[in-house]
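Re: [ENG-882] Designed sequences occasionally contain unexpected residues at chain ends

Forwarding the minimal case from QA. Structure tokens:
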């Protein structure tokens, strides 16, 4: 029972973190959008790490080491060695500690079962929809932007990182729309027959909504890097879809 409770709490925190973290903007901090997100992220990481350790002690984590795992460990190890032993001086670095937090998130998500991972995928789509709607409200003047010279920033400091976030979510939404990722199918098979179909419908509806909202807003950001990222990733995914490839 305790294992299930900690598992549910862990998934809920991860779900909310992936959905709502881009909205965090703590006024009073230096660079409130960036620093605010960092502090909320690390407080959540602390709670998630405790819950994950409890789960490991109660039942153990179930995943096999694969190539991406090795790459993540090697990357973090190299950056740590370079920071503390190769470089002559080092300062406090938010990106470095963010990388450590992201590595912990990666380990925690790898330890989840497929249905837990699928809900997190859906949370990313919901986060993309929220940010897209946030941007639309900013364009029409219903919500203030976070920059004096740009009226479109989403939950970020300027249109650059905002467009980068939208461009990162877009391929996930497009991939679910085209293929309905196997992880969603695995998750839907865990539930009853009615939930099986409902989860797939929800995933498809969220992906379509996310694609529409992001497409409408990303054009206005005037971010060529964001446009290029969406174009290349969409072209790659479409080339692997048999129906499109046979046209």
């Amino acid at each position: 029972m305790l294992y299930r409770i900690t598992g549910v709490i862990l998934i809920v925190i991860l779900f909310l973190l992936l959905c709502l973290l881009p909205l965090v903007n703590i006024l009073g901090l230096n660079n409130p959008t960036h620093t605010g997100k960092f502090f909320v992220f690390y407080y959540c990481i602390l709670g998630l790490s405790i819950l994950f350790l409890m789960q490991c002690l109660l039942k153990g984590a179930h995943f096999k080491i694969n190539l991406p795992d090795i790459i993540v460990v090697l990357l973090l190890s190299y950056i740590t060695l370079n920071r503390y032993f190769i470089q002559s001086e080092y300062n406090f670095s938010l990106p470095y500690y963010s990388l450590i937090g992201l590595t912990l998130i990666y380990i925690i998500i790898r330890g989840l079962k497929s249905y837990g991972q699928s809900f997190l995928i859906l949370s990313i789509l919901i986060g993309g929809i929220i940010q897209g709607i946030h941007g639309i409200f900013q364009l029409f003047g219903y919500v203030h932007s976070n920059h004096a010279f740009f009226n479109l920033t989403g939950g970020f400091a300027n249109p650059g990182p905002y467009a980068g976030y939208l461009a990162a979510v877009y391929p996930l939404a497009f991939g679910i729309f085209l293929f309905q990722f196997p992880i969603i199918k695995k998750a839907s098979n865990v539930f009853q027959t009615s939930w099986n179909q409902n989860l797939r419908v929800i995933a498809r509806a969220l992906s379509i909504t996310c694609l529409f909202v992001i497409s409408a807003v990303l054009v206005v950001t005037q971010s060529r890097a964001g446009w290029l990222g969406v174009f290349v990733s969409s072209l790659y995914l479409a080339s692997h879809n048999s129906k499109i490839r046979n046209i």
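QA comment: On inspection the terminal residues look reasonable. Residues 193-221 form the longest helix (29 residues). Proposing we downgrade this to a documentation issue.
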